[in-house]
Amino acid sequence: MSKTRVYELARELNLSSKDLILKLNELGIKVKNHMSTLEDEEVNLIIEILTDKHEVKDDENKMECIENGNDENNQVKSEDIKIISVPPFITVKELSEKMNINSSDIIKKLMSRGIMVTINQQIDYDNAVQIAEEYGFLVDKKEEDDENINILDEEDDEKDNEEELLPRPPVVTVMGHVDHGKTSLLDAIRKTKVSQHEAGGITQHIGASVVEINNKKIIFLDTPGHEAFTAMRARGASVTDIAILVVAADDGVMPQTIEAINHAKAANVPIIVAINKIDKPNANPDRVKQELTEHGLVPEDWGGDTICVNVSAHLKTGIDTLLEMVLLVAEMQELKANPNRNAKGVIIEAQLDKTKGPVATVLVQKGTLKTGDVIIAGSAFGKVRAMFDDKGKKIKKATPSTPVEVLGLSDVPEAGDVLVALQDEKKARLIVEKRKEKYREYKIKQKQKISLDELFNQIKEGNIKELNIILKADLQGSVEAIQQSIEQLSNDEVRIKVIHGAVGAITETDVMFAAASNAIIIGFNVRPDSKAKSLAEKEKVDIRLYRIIYDAIDDIKAAMKGMLEPEFKERELGKAEVRAVFKVPGVGNVAGCYVLEGKILRSAEIRIVRNGIVIYEGKIASLKRFKEDTKEVLQGFECGIGIERFNDIKEGDVLEAFQMEEIPR
């Protein structure tokens, strides 16, 4: 006759072993612990009683089918049962200590189940229960403290009392067009010569500098321009309080200046304009101010609210005035933080140092970070072994708005990860394990981006109140015309806003901006480059390309009504670069090409792209390899391509082969 252990029956009845033992005692079935065995007839009776399939008429009938029922010594008192508390994840060492069992025995049992672990590795709750029950223990599930897990999310924050908040220094990012003097201005501010050494890579700094003026501190992030600024935002970190926009007085507003303005506006960061190079003979600050007004930045002395300061990084003039303006804007913002709490900050940059291990630059935003603190950043955790300030000096504590280099993390975190200090190292380990488990899901949620296909559903659910669009076109006139037409489509439910419009190909910067601002990219007669395309796929950014303005407008209209049903989709086949142009009598110009990626099919349609701008779309007239007609040419091979009704082919042009595929409705 087979026998069943109490814990096996408990699992079958979906009860804890402890509850089943107590129920058995009530029924007069005496068992010592959950390792005790039950006869088949006892098991059947218990199942019938506990599932209400059998009515027990009286206690005598129950006792008849149970041997030794009157033996009082077999009665188990609930206080004699060995109970341990196990969290959702527990290390083998912690489990062995709770049960007072040799850890090597537990590892052997786990190995027999096909689970290979070491003493410091974690096992999940279900495996811990099975091991514990084999040793005669009851397991009580210790629920994880949701707060401990959610502490990693930026939204979950201790609320600070108003009286605990103290003023903190402002954090400033310097942005602007290339060669307008961003690094030189930072050098002049820091009174150092970083730019002279930059090419040789001698610079040793931590990605941030602390400057003092009038006994007040200002923190400058050394991140180069708006790319890093937007990359941080794309990862959910808002670290900048003020943006200084550097514009050269002899050059004026340039494409990257406009990008920087749009990036700062999208992040709701106040802008101070530093009109640099006023020492140049052809400097014209008024022309700069005029151009700024065209992009919504009206200078204060012209009746607006944008502070403009004339500076010369070369002569170091106007620097003090600029810094005073930064303090003034910071004062208006009333920047405050509570220094008397667990530290919370953002990773500015991180790398693996050969001698120091993982090294992270942290900007402390709240609380005070101290040497010895247990910290978490993304899926890395550890103890603060040492901290260094921006001058490389070792410090023991860092208050709000202080940038520090931190040693002691287990892994290299990502820039933009939130760093949190905790009291308990075990709690930190648990959170990191849980974070790793949910990391992918968490990232996917963070990365959910809007697309035209989903727009209507999002509007209906109330998730979208504003549709951001980044617009790239081949001509400035097209940008303005499309922007005007698109913004007029706004209605009561959703406002359509072009947050950036410019001439030229769609670049990585555009995709990163779209990712940070949850925007759709619309391209008119332009194409994304290869890097932009792969980044868009990774970041789930929707790129829509058009040749006719009204198609773009009709698509957005249809998307807002939930009627967008694309019937055809473009399938890219390959790209070829024109290396030479041959004149063939009676045929015209033929492009001597090298296939860069994919393949070129004779039956495909072809698009000619010059400097990121689409200049022609048509059909392939001829495709040859060594004067022989061919149906296809693969990557890495050369070929001759003739294009129907098009002769203006030039060296350096890129030919994109594609086919239109019908999508079933």
TrEMBL record:
Keywords: Cytoplasm, GTP-binding, Initiation factor, Nucleotide-binding, Protein biosynthesis
Any matching Pfam family: EF-G_D2
Domain Tr-type G: residue ranges: 167-336
This protein's record includes keyword Protein biosynthesis: yes
Organism per entry: Aceticella autotrophica
Location, primary (coarse class): cytoplasm
Residues the record lists as binding GTP: 176-183, 222-226, 276-279
UniProt keyword Cytoplasm, yes or no: yes
PANTHER family assigned: TR-TYPE G DOMAIN-CONTAINING PROTEIN (PTHR43381:SF5), TRANSLATION INITIATION FACTOR IF-2-RELATED (PTHR43381)
Recorded family membership: Belongs to the TRAFAC class translation factor GTPase superfamily. Classic translation factor GTPase family. IF-2 subfamily.
Subcellular localization(s) per the UniProt record: Cytoplasm
UniProt-listed HAMAP family: IF_2_B
Signal sequence bounds: none
Region G-domain: start-end pairs: 170-318
Job of this protein: One of the essential components for the initiation of protein synthesis. Protects formylmethionyl-tRNA from spontaneous hydrolysis and promotes its binding to the 30S ribosomal subunits. Also involved in the hydrolysis of GTP during the formation of the 70S ribosomal complex.
Protein name, entry field: Translation initiation factor IF-2
GO cellular component, one term: cytosol
Organism domain of life: Bacteria
